[in-house]
């Protein structure tokens, strides 16, 4: 869950109160946020993950269900916290955060409906850097089985924490498209440029690497070469969830039958919609095109 307020220029001293223009509570993150975005742009989506047995978990499941996500695969973990963040959004759209990790840390293969994975047209792995229970060769075997059956597998990360990056590399031979942000890509590879990082990540197994670059758009790397996809020029209210929205648009593009660059352009358009409002699903009230 994300709790967002804008605009926030400073944290009040003592018990002072600052008035803000807007607050929202949203389903967010590299899995739930992307799932909600997919549902809101018209793509049927089911979410597999874990929440605690707390009120936050109740609310998160309700929000996702209300947005159109199939939540039957979300498990409750007794005694655990549901992952949540508080985000005071700056006037320029920047988003510092206060975060508590939650039940997804312990999500394991035993919690996953394997038939749903192998039957999906696309499986999106969100936040594998912090879903430690799935750092499991048996899970990699499941993902490979899905791919053998024609499922496309995409992956995005949640954190920019250097000590979590090395374990992510184990997933790369098992995914088709990897969608890190610039900082994650550089941390993973130690490269000096995003072009070098993309080439290094592509060499580890994916069919495509798409590095999001904020206001600079994204870099798409495939065996055919590198392509820059520019960001759209839109007024920015809040950058929360733009990467998750890019992933949702990219997945939607794959389902439409677009090539990788075409799917990236749709991802760019979905991210631009989200940047224009507060929260990770802002502005997504129906189909999005990149025309």
TrEMBL record:
Annotated Pfam families: PfkB
One GO biological process term: phosphate-containing compound metabolic process
Domain of life of the organism encoding this protein: Bacteria
Keyword Transferase (UniProt): yes
Family annotation (CDD domains): KdgK
Molecular function as annotated in GO: kinase activity
Residue ranges of every copy of the Carbohydrate kinase PfkB domain listed in the record: 5-280
Key words of the record: Kinase, Transferase
Cellular component annotations (GO), alphabetically ordered: cytosol
PANTHER family documented for this protein: RIBOKINASE, SUGAR KINASE
Protein name: Sugar kinase
Natural source organism: Planotetraspora thailandica
Taxonomic lineage: Bacteria, Bacillati, Actinomycetota, Actinomycetes, Streptosporangiales
């Amino acid at each position: 869950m994300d709790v967002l307020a804008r605009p926030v220029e400073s944290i009040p001293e003592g018990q002072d109160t600052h008035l803000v223009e807007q607050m929202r509570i949203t389903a967010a993150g590299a899995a739930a946020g992307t799932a909600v975005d997919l549902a809101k742009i018209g793509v049927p989506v089911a979410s597999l993950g874990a929440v605690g047995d707390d009120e936050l978990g109740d609310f998160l499941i309700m929000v996702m269900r209300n947005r159109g996500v199939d939540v039957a695969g979300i498990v409750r973990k007794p005694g655990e916290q549901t992952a949540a963040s508080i985000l005071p959004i700056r006037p320029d759209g920047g988003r510092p955060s206060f975060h508590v990790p939650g039940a997804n840390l312990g999500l394991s293969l035993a919690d996953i409906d394997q038939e749903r994975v192998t039957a999906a047209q696309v499986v999106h792995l969100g936040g594998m850097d912090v879903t430690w229970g799935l750092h499991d060769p048996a899970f990699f075997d499941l993902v490979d089985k899905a791919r053998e059956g024609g499922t496309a597998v995409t992956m995005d990360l949640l954190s920019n924490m250097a000590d979590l990056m090395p374990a992510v590399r184990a997933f790369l031979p098992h995914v088709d498209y990897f969608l890190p942000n610039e900082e994650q890509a550089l941390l993973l590879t130690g490269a000096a440029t995003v072009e070098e990082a993309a080439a290094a990540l592509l060499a580890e197994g994916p069919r495509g690497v798409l590095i999001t670059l904020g206001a600079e758009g994204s870099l798409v790397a495939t065996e055919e070469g590198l392509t820059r996809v520019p960001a759209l020029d839109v007024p920015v209210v809040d950058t929360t969830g733009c990467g998750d929205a890019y992933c949702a648009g990219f997945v939607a593009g794959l389902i439409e039958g677009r090539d990788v660059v075409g799917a990236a352009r749709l991802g760019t358009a979905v991210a631009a919609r989200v940047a224009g409002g507060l929260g990770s699903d802002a502005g997504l009230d129906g189909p999005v095109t990149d025309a």
